[in-house]
Amino acid sequence: MMQMSTAATSRPERNWSKYQQAIFRDVADGQGHSVVVARAGSGKTTTIMKALQYVPPKKRVLMVAFNKSIERELSEKAPKGVEVRTLHGYGFALLRRASSKVWVDENKVKALIDEQLGPELSAERRDTLDRCVSLAKATLAKTEEDVRRIVDDFDLDVPAPEVTTFAQQVLALLDACAARRETVNFDDMLWLPIQQNLAPRKFERVFVDETQDLNRCQVVLALRACADGGRICAVGDDRQAIYSWRGANADSVPRLIKALKATVLPLSVTYRCARSIVEVAREVVPDLEAAPGAEQGKVAEASEAELRREAKAGDFVLSRTNAPLVQLCLSFLADGRPATIIGRDIGSKLATLVRRSDAKTVPELRRWIDDWASSQEERLKRKGKDPSAVRDEAECLHRLIGGSTSVPAVLARIEGLFSDDSEGARIVLATTHKAKGLERERVWVLKDTYKRNSVEEDNLWYVAVTRAKRDLRLVRSAAA
Length: 480
Hints:
The chain has 4 domains: 18-96 and 193-270, Rossmann fold (3-Layer(aba) Sandwich), CATH 3.40.50.300; 104-180; 293-343 and 420-479, Rossmann fold (3-Layer(aba) Sandwich), CATH 3.40.50.300; 347-417. Helices cover 48% and strands 17% of the residues.
């Protein structure tokens, strides 16, 4: 029989949907593991916080939060006795339990590269090694073949004749990371507890949020936290899986369902989006449902001219790629309207390319960008890979250069354009990847930037349109 704590019964009840009630019953009385497929705006945090109140008494409960800010939010809402941790925090605690002499050094891998390969190694190869070591930890790579697969899957810039040597260097760096246990970087907090086979702290109930965004290393660590005979409740949306480029598998939710032999519990009603917006999203995700009583809202096509004229502070402007956002943001700023592009890391990467060019003048910088883009496109085409990301970076840089009279002026423009702050009285522009988890009353989507030619591309479209609560504008490109 489904029961809940005294704290839960003392609060006035809301009208929980049939999907939410099924989740509560499963947490209270179910058997085995479960996966909650929570669609965009379906109130998953509210639902899981309520579900925690149905956990049978005297059970050790772990709630895995995706990042530190979510951990703080959930810690304030979770019932007493529920331990809320990020996986990084959980893993680091295991390392500290094994040895009190552990401290964080985010430059650990860079230092090891210097020690093993010398300071004369090019900056480009150093960065590629650093990224590959990170991906090797995320995917739990162990062999030369595993590293070769990473080089191919993630389009790392390693010439074919050098792949064997490169893979051996990566494996040697992994060994060095494992041996230097007194220092850890962010990746090590997840990887080292598994690599060292540390005895995990066990919980009888483990709730894992944002499952679709977890890489293999994170999934393994989360599963190890579950005691024998315990139960896992994983929460995620397979159609919001858009981070394959950083090690999360696009099919991670179906894989987890299969691995756990889990009961699948849908959470399909969106309390965010108006009915007309739900209809657009249902072209990709047919099981998405509008909430009872949801307003009709507005979906309309718009031209770029209308976007430039009518966008106002508080609006989102979303694109599949960055280059169109750069041009629009510069246009808004020229008109005296505050605007920013989410993604300080994007700006940092573009600035790194500018500095790598060693260009002294703007014409030199333009030539270097063209040569760099051409060589990168050729490399990717030889591997049968899509070069569109390289084209996007090159186009971003050319648009940022426009009107600049010096290379320092280009760098200053990059610094001023990109930020990590999505709040404030300004127009906020973002790629879909950067807008995930956010929402606005009105959202402009540059629809012609979306490819819609694969599951992950469809996922990007679904995530983009479901950022809108009441008003969705689908913007045609000027060329169209």
